[in-house]
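Journal club prep — side note

Before the paper discussion, L.F. wants everyone to see what a predicted structure for a comparable chain looks like in token form. Sequence:
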Amino acid sequence: MSRVARRLLQSLGLPLMAYLFICLMTAQIRQASFSLTLPSLGEPDSNSALELLLLSLPGQLLFVLAGCFTHRRRLLLGVFLLAASITALLQCLVFAQCFGTTWSTAETFILLASNAPALLLALLPGLALLYNTETTQPSSTIS
């Protein structure tokens, strides 16, 4: 599998992370049980799933572009975590309006920081996908 195709496959962990993060954050803020339904954005023509996917694209593009030039696994993991944190911040900016009417930028960063445990939990499937699709170097055998 080529490096670009592998990075594209690995970048699919970011929308999954964003979805789980929003669900976990919603359950924590509303002090309700965990549900796999996205909160409504409140605007009449808005679609929460479409907003989530659109705001995952910058993180996916960053990961694919930076990941294609990354050869070390630790650096690739760092690029994935950076892309995931940017994606989570963008999700907080959009879905914060579900929890109140006015949010400043500082309050959005506080919202992200206070939900860091939910972000770490939501990162697990994406990191598992990253780990499982990253191939090891084949050992050379002399015949």
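L.F.'s comment for the group: The chain has a mean pLDDT of 86. Keep this in mind when we get to the figures.
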